[in-house]
């Protein structure tokens, strides 16, 4: 079987809201061995929705639609489906009462506008929404099965698992598609691709590819198998081979974040960390403490933006700053060393740099950053020239990732 996914909403086509539903549904369909041919995002306009439904039904076995089932005048998905089927809308009183009961359970009266959510194309089947006011719709047009679900992600996911998956699973037939992504940091996409070039050859099963997003490189693995066990075995084989070749460049898999990988190592080794930040303004400490249980390893963080704060809070000598500048290898070293000693931590990370967009010079351009990592054996400082073409947010983000990766590698013994 193959499928198409339609996401309805002008807020999506204008970029005001990010469509997460399509990605989630694609992953769920892949688990059944149903290949998604395309995603399309459609504004809240009757004829474009009808046209995309018609196009999809002419080419795929299953169409999943999310959004456009609300009570307002711009919620037109039900009308577009009725237009496609050449039928009218009919009111289902039991669903009027369901919606009314939903409001009553929250101590509110149902607005009359919500009655439209109990209108369904003649010949279609309503799907009860257990956590919202918008029922879904199941229909068949010609040879294609259509499921329309709410655009609210939580409502959509509950409806899919309860009402759509049980219908699709017996129809999907044999075969399964599994996927996994290994995340890497510390090398460019082309360098990583060169190490696994033979695994990326076209026509292989699994298929392997790379993506880059804000200096994190993802290595995607997609595999098809006649059974889940067969697919899993192929996936595991390539995943282990990629990990072997890339070594410590790999920090996590699927939804893992770099900070979580560092946290896991700190937990495992029972080590502590403190931070001293200038250009990142507390962002590094924030990422380390985003992890539940971070109080077990994170002791303290200081943000010393002004030169005077570096001296008062960390004891960085004023004459050292005067000689070398706040953005310097020497200042980063004292910041990290003093931070570790004052916090009595196993490790300390320091960051000082020029995040821009102004403040750079020919000698010290925007994007110049020094990162210090101190432990009981001393302090090592690395220089990073991230480039003045990046935004302030990008420079700060990449600085944090570089600092976290320094600590990760140190915890791994490198």
Task: Give an account of the 3D structure.
The chain is 39% helix and 25% strand. It has 414 residues and is of the alpha/beta class. It has three domains: 2-171, MoaB/Mog-like domain (Molybdenum Cofactor Biosythetic Enzyme, Chain A), CATH 3.40.980; 176-253, Alpha-Beta Plaits, CATH 3.30.70.2860; 258-411, Maf protein, CATH 3.90.950.20.
| Shape summary | elongated
Structural class: alpha/beta
Q: Which fold name is given in CATH as the topology of the largest domain? A: Molybdenum Cofactor Biosythetic Enzyme, Chain A
Query: Can you list the strand order of the major beta sheet?
Result: 2-1-3-8-7-6
Which features would summarize this protein structure in a list?
Molybdenum Cofactor Biosythetic Enzyme, Chain A, 414 residues, five-stranded mixed β-sheet, 14 helices, alpha/beta, Maf protein
Task: Spell out the blueprint of helices and strands.
Elements: E1 2-8, H1 10-13, H2 21-31, E2 35-42, H3 46-57, E3 62-66, H4 77-85, E4 89-91, H5 93-104, E5 119-121, E6 125-127, E7 136-141, E8 144-149, H6 153-171, E9 176-184, H7 189-195, E10 207-213, E11 216-225, H8 228-246, E12 250-253, H9 258-269, E13 273-277, H10 283-289, E14 298-303, H11 307-314, H12 318-324, H13 329-343, E15 347-353, E16 368-375, E17 378-385, H14 392-411
Helix pairs in contact: 3-4, 9-14
């Amino acid at each position: 079987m193959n499928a198409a996914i339609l996401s309805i909403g002008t807020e999506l086509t204008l970029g005001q809201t990010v469509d997460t539903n399509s990605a989630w549904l694609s992953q769920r369909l892949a688990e059944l061995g149903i290949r998604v041919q395309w995603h399309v995002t459609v504004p809240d306009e009757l004829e474009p929705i009808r046209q995309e439904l018609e196009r999809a039904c002419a080419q795929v076995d299953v169409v999943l639609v999310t959004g456009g089932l609300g009570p307002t005048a711009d919620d037109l998905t039900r009308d577009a489906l009725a237009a496609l089927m050449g039928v009218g809308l009919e009111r289902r009183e039991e669903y009027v009462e369901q919606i009314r009961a939903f409001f009553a359970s929250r101590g509110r009266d149902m607005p009359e506008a919500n009655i439209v959510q109990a209108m369904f194309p003649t010949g279609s089947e309503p799907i009860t929404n257990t956590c919202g006011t918008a029922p879904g719709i199941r229909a068949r047009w010609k040879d294609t099965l259509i499921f329309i679900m709410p655009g609210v992600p939580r409502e959509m996911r509950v409806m899919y698992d309860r009402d759509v998956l049980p219908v699709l699973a017996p129809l999907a037939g044999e075969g399964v598609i599994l996927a996994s992504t290994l995340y890497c940091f510390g090398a460019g996409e082309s360098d990583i691709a060169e190490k696994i070039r033979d695994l990326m050859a076209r026509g292989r099963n699994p298929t392997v590819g790379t993506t880059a997003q804000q200096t994190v490189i993802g290595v995607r693995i997609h595999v098809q198998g006649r059974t889940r066990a067969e697919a899993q075995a192929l996936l595991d084989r390539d995943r282990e081979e990629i990990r072997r070749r890339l070594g410590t460049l790999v920090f996590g898999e699927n939804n893992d974040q770099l900070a979580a990988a560092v946290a896991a190592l700190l937990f495992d080794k029972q080590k502590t960390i403190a931070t001293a930040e200038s250009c990142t303004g507390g962002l590094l400490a924030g990422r380390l403490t985003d992890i539940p249980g971070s109080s077990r390893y994170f002791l303290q963080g200081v943000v010393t933006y002004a030169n005077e704060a570096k001296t008062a809070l960390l004891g960085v000598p004023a004459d050292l700053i005067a000689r070398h500048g706040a953005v310097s290898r020497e200042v980063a070293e004292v910041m990290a060393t003093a931070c570790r000693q004052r916090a009595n931590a196993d490790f300390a990370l320091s960051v000082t740099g020029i995040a821009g967009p102004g403040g750079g010079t020919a000698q010290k351009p925007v994007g110049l950053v020094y990162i210090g990592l101190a432990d009981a054996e001393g302090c090592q400082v690395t220089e990073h020239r991230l480039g003045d073409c990046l935004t302030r947010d990008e420079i700060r983000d990449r600085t944090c990732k570089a600092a976290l990766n320094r600590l990760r590698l140190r915890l791994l013994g490198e």
